[in-house]
Amino acid sequence: MSRKVKKIIFVCTGNTCRSPMAEVIGKNILNHPIEIISRGIFVSYSSGANEKAIAITNKNNLSLEQHQAKPFDINEVENNTLILTMTDGHKLMLLKQYSILNNNVYTLNEFVGEKGIIEDPFGQSIKAYELTFNQLNELISKLNNKIEWEDNE
Fold it and tell me: What are the record keywords, sorted (predicted)?
């Protein structure tokens, strides 16, 4: 699977753990200056990133200190926006609510040709956050080979 991409939106549940980590990893390792953001499906109020997610990203010389959780907004989807969810459930919720996204939304695993999902570490040990970070890092590293970059104008 390969496609032209101008923008990536990583999506998880609350936009405090997985998708913000995916966002900072993506900004760090993807070799092209495209817009990379993260959003959540169920964000009832804007909060910062989870403290364990902040600790793990800091340990890896990345920062979530300024992150504020934001809900998914269909108005942020443009031509050649790639939406990468953490689970099949997130993907199905987006497709049910916005059928227009049919060719834009995939699970991150699916898009890079892997099976499985990215489990939510919320409420678990710092080790669970580290495992999630490492899984995201590995999967996002594979994105460079799956994307044809479209220059932002």
Answer: Coiled coil, Hydrolase, Protein phosphatase
Asked if residue 151 belongs to a domain, the reply is no
> Residues, the chain, total?
153
Task: Please give the full DSSP string across 3-19, using - where no structure is assigned.
Answer: EEESEEEEEESSSSSHH
| pLDDT average per 10 residues of sequence, the chain (153 residues) | 85 97 96 91 93 98 97 94 97 95 94 96 97 98 83 52
- The DSSP call for residue 115 is -
Catalytic residues: 12, 18, 120
How is residue 57 written in tokens? 């990203």
* Strand-strand pairing, 7-12 and 81-85: parallel
How far apart, in Å, are the Cα atoms of 92 and each of 21, 87, 88, 95?
A: 22, 9, 6, 5
**Alpha carbon distance 3, 84 (integer Å):** 13
8-state DSSP, 76: G
Give the residue carrying structure tokens 């570490």.
Answer: 121
Q: Show the domain range for 86.
A: 3-146
- What CATH number did the domain enclosing 35 receive? 3.40.50.2300
